[in-house]
Amino acid sequence: MTTRLALRRFSAIPLRRLGDKRWYSSAADGFDATSSSSKAQPPSEAIDGFSVFPQELPSNAQDPSKDDFINDATSPPRTREQQMEYNKHESLRDWLGRQSRKRSVDEIVVLTGNIHRGSEILHNAVYNKGTGFNHSERERLGVRGLVPPRFFSIEQQAEKIWQQQVVMRESNAPKIARWRHLQALKDRNETLFYRLLQEHVEELAPVIYTPTVGEACLNYSRFFRRARGMFFTKDDVGHMHSMTYNWRGDVKIVVVTDGSRVLGLGDLGAHGMGISVGKLDLYVAGGGFDPQEVLPVCLDVGTNNKSLLNDKWYFGLNSQRLEGGDYYRVIDEFMRAIRHRWPNALIQFEDFQTKHALEILTNYRNDYLCFNDDIQGTAAVVLAGVYGALKVLGGKDRSEIRKQKFVMCGAGSAGMGIVAMLHKAVVKSGGLSEEEAYDNFYIMDNNGLITNERKLEFPREAAVEPFAKARKATKELPDGASLLDVVTKSKCTALLGASTVNGLFTEDVLRQMGEQNERPIIFPLSNPTSNAECTSEEAAKATDGRAVFSSGSPFEDAKGAVSGRLMRANQGNNLYIFPGLGLGALLSGAKTISEEMLVSSAKAISDMLTEDQIRRGCIFPLIKEIRNISARVAVRVIKQAAEEGQAKRSVVAIIESDDEHDTKLYKYVKRAQYVPEYRPTVFPVEESRRTVDDY
Ligand SMILES: NC(=O)c1ccc[n+]([C@@H]2O[C@H](COP(=O)([O-])OP(=O)(O)OC[C@H]3O[C@@H](n4cnc5c(N)ncnc54)[C@H](O)[C@@H]3O)[C@@H](O)[C@H]2O)c1
Ligand SMILES: O=C(O)C[C@H](O)C(=O)O
Ligand SMILES: [Mg+2]
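Above: inputs. Below: predicted complex with magnesium ion.
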């Protein structure tokens, strides 16, 4: 305390950004910052005349509405342009010298929070830059001699790691080996990891996310190296509030799973952590969230997966899943704990089994900033895909959705989320009543076609009920009718799969789709690849390349067997939605996620398609554009929030400012996106006494 007071009196640097961090000083400076002794010396008496002063590393993801976004030259480089400039130089002298030979400084700020010096910095993935520490940082942080002598910029480092990935790709190394290579990088240098991911997102998304993340989740206990995220278990009930304080820093976004339905792989218990981590990697690389502000969570409420329970290395609780009230108590305490600690954080529910997913969403969606990715994110990406497909089909506008007849294979959280949103879109397109619009949908589950004769289990199948009621069983299409019969007799135009059943779209079924449609819409959405209802090759072969194809996991474009026509293999994965939706929701200041925000996200995506892409059969913009796609989605979400009266004043002011507000909002969002750039750790402030040549 006394030390702090001393600091306050003697330091030329304002303390306002210190927060509750302990400040740090090295022994070399002649006093121990952590001591409460009144003998502590003020920084101005540090032996080399410079104070060593802790602050948080400045993020370059900013609240762009704040005035202090633009720095003056004597505060740490915060904007990404300033940080990039700083990082080009091998020492402070070099950096300052280039700015102005006459520049003088008073203090040196060491921006490494309350962590220690030397090897501890090198072993901290947040601060570590490896060979990227410039000479001044090496000196000040006590890492001189602990890293190889030569300085490499982040661009050079990224190029080196990328070359290793290319070698692995070219030597057909398993994707999981590439996943491990990247996780190891993340464990030692997060900034470089995200830099690489951002630069090569098209090739690396399938490595760190779907489908490879599925394989990683299957073996997560064995792959475990370094703790990531937070686990809350059933044994933590009563302690969750306090546990959230074990997590450092501010959190803007939480992805939480209970591991009960990981992709199409079923109950993977505590291994579900892998999916939360993978989603958040895309929030960072694709959405522009600061990696310091994301929190992956796995709720370990047990598992019913026998092989995990019998696996002596399984790292989750060795017990059966909680059910009923006990289960919902865990969820509720978790939700309250998060809100108590980080009141503005967005919570994404991920991979909860269908029997709980809808109920959890219903319980919290009106009071918390939250959404379910599998129900809502998936629905929005499929709606975007259908709008994109209408363009490829030459439709004149979105209202043509009402002419489509959909067969949905899978009546789980994904399938029912999709049809609920498509049904609303059909009704909104005009011309059909709610009742009439149900006729555009045929829902199937493992027992075949679902009709009014089906006995539904409530509340689990409540979402199915209106579709079931409206589909009267007939002699032609009785309850339980087969997929081939349903496809043939319904004359459907679109075949969607969220069934988890690999090969469900058989050659007969695909061929029939091709016979009854000039351009059949075929979406095998189940993940990972091993669960897809069909491959791109199968769809292209059976339809001679005419299908408008989109799968949950990535496939290669494929050629029709007769004409050799190239069929575009789009990837219809909710990765197009969640990063931008989250970004928009948080930047707008919204308190809840509305259905209309999701619909706006879908429209934003299909609006981005270019004529050339449409000609080539693309129904989504390219994944390599994901940061811009996310920014476009965020703009629509912000505007929707404003329309609902949910947006904060500063963004409403932009919207009301003039006709150019879309461009302004876009810039606003882009400025808020974090860019993986090394954050300066050592920085001079206050021009007064010393000149550059003094150090
Ligand atoms: N592409 C994406 O972005 C995305 C998003 C979410 C979910 N998914 C995938 O969707 C799949 C389903 O997820 P869920 O949460 O709804 O799972 P779920 O297990 O709750 O639902 C699966 C449904 O498929 C039905 N089904 C099983 N066999 C069938 C068959 N032979 N014919 C027709 N239906 C059959 C089941 O009865 C059930 O209704 C998963 O593989 C998941 O990875 C993809
Ligand atoms: O995780 C994905 O790739 C998409 C989706 O959330 C799923 O559960 O399959
Ligand atoms: Mg999911």
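Residues 350-351, 373-374 surround magnesium ion (ligand 3) (CB under 6 Å).
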